[in-house]
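Hi support team,

I submitted a single chain yesterday and got back a structure, but I'm not sure I'm reading the token output correctly. Could someone confirm the output below corresponds to the sequence I sent? I've pasted both exactly as they appear in my results page.

Thanks,
R.
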Amino acid sequence: MNTAAHDAPAIDYGTKQRPNYAAMASLALGLMLFVPLVTGGLAIFFGRRGMRAARESFAGRYHTARAGFILGLVNVLLSITAACVYGVHEYHASQRRQCAANLRQIGNAILMYSNSHRGQYPPTFDELVTTGQLPKGSAVFNCPVCRGKKAATVSNVVTSSYVLGPPWKPKLPLRYYGNITFVVAFEPLSNHEGRGMHVLTNHGEVTWVDAPLAAKVMAELKSGENPPDSLKGIMW
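Hi R., thanks for writing in. Yes, this is the structure output for that exact sequence:
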């Protein structure tokens, strides 16, 4: 009796490994960090499917799926962070645009007052209301980000987050002021959390001045230097 056939070891041909397409798709999508959010979400989705297939169906490529899953998480987190940063930046920019628009309206009211008073400028914001250039309680007197903050100007009629620029001689004719540029109104640095301030000139121009220079301009205005020497070459 031939026993060789019975004694020979059995050959295990094994089972052919199934391809893990979800893992490969996850890694490919995860590497597309330049496409925000959407590819990250898809990489997470296919990464989870790929890891499940590797565990349950012996499809292999578990580490490939895991790498795609992690890259997808990174993509999503970076996208959310970038969106938050952009949102904060855009919020501040919109507030600054509204603030500048307020000062332009104040500048127009000052110009109309001056035209009606033989070139004289109003000594306070009150005159803009009492002469009908602006209504009492007008929102243009307050910076949109200054709710709850201490007012920069408190007078009999107007409470404002802006300051009328010192000093000028109201009795001088308007044609004199047409030859020079000086600050008509400005705002304290606290209005925009110390990032800078808007400055309104007698020509109706509103310019944003960043914090380092704004602090110097503020000091010059408070000392009575108008036009401020620091703004030469920038605004005139």
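A quick pointer for reading it: Residues 119-231 form one domain. Let us know if anything else looks off.

Best,
Support desk
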